[in-house]
Specification:
The protein has 130 residues and is an all-alpha fold. The chain has a domain at 54-124. Helices cover 71% and strands 0% of the residues.
Length: 130
Amino acid sequence: MNRNKNRLLTFIKVSLIQLLITFIPESEKVLAGSMPRYTGPIRIEPPPGYELRYSEILGTVYDLLYPVAITYGIFEIIIAGYRIMKSEGEPKAMSEAKEHLTNSIVGILFVILAVIILRVIIRSFFSLNI
C-alpha cells in the first residue's frame, strides 16, 4: 500500500512541476548550463556607516528567547496540571504528573536565574545595557 501511495505522490509531484513549467514564459526559462556557478564564500557587507554591535545582537537574542522560554515553562505547568487532573488519583500517573510539575517550575526558575546572572555579568564586565 505504501509503495503505491509513494508512486502516486511522485506522479502528482512530477505532474505539478510539468504543469508549472508550461506556464513559465520561454524568456524566463533557464537552461542548466547557463546557471551561475558557485565561486566561493558569499560575503554580506553591512550598509555603509553601520557597525555591528554585540550589544544589539545580545539584546535581540535576549528579547526573543526570554519570553519564549518563560511561555514554554508556563505551557509545561499547564500540561502538568492537566495530567494531575487526568490521573484521577492513580498513584503512578499522579507521581509522574507531580514530577512534571516540579521539573517545569524548576526550569522556569533556572531561566529566570540565568537571565539575572547574565545581566549582572554583562553589565559589570562589558558595560552593556540589556
